[in-house]
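tool_call predict_complex ligand=iron/sulfur cluster
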Amino acid sequence: MKIAMASGKGGTGKTTVCVNLAQVYGSPVQLLDCDVEEPNAHLFLKGLVRSQETVTLPIPEVDQSLCDACGECSRFCQYHAIASFGTKPLVFPEMCHGCGGCALVCPKKAIHEVDKRIGVVETIQAENITLIQGLLDVGVAMAPPLIRAVKTRVQPGRPAILDAPPGTSCPVVTVLRGADFVVLVTEPTPFGLHDLKLAVEMVQQLRIPFGVVVNRMGIGDDRVHVFCKNEDIPILLEIPDDRRIAEAYSRGELIVEALPEYRAHFERLREAVLERTSTDLHDPGRVAIRVATPGASTFQR
Ligand code: SF4
Ligand code: SF4
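tool_result ok
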């Protein structure tokens, strides 16, 4: 079971939902921090680093003495990472995905590959949670290869929660591919709704079942709920705009430990996701869980 956590925009509380869901999972779980430009799940989990592995990408290098400037490599590369203008080619390593295709098509066997470091993958054990996080090197623009390296460390047969980067770009799609269910975390504001729509479009195109978590209930308006209702999208959990949650976050504490009354809600989020991966997903957009705390308003439909 692979549950991916995504959001159309940053700052919605996606990592908060990930780490708290992992904490209450109830059995050993793998937590993959795939937000490799800014991994932060480790801030909430106290564990020991078990391993650290360097990740490299094979980048082409042209032997000028063998190259006859035919341009085959340049025509093959869909990423424009190797360019020949009737001349011996130039390589742009920061754009290269390391697919190896240019070396394969070179008729003169003039291309060999050299390893370029792009980052590291760390494995941290924090009680029942095995945190696997990617850390992209400063100045490296290519996140997907490192994300794939994080994903290959998953032990098959054990549940995994994947924390995706914010947005709907290529790195996010790299995280979501192969997921059994996607949880989209949003907030009930016009910006939240705008980015939620983009995220919904993305997961619909990927044909992955999904549901929504609305964070900071009480700010903004009801347009996220109206959208979810109209689109038959289940709202799996609502987390109120509770100052104590923000305070716990700022101290690097898990909500379920700082505020134990929330534990049952995250447990039910897990149940709602598991239930929805095994049953008909076209249930009208009902609220599976509604969290209410004194002083926090919740939207009623
Ligand atoms: S390895 Fe792939 S991405 Fe990199 S330059 Fe060659 S064809 Fe392009
Ligand atoms: S395909 Fe090989 S021979 Fe042709 S331009 Fe590229 S490196 Fe040179």
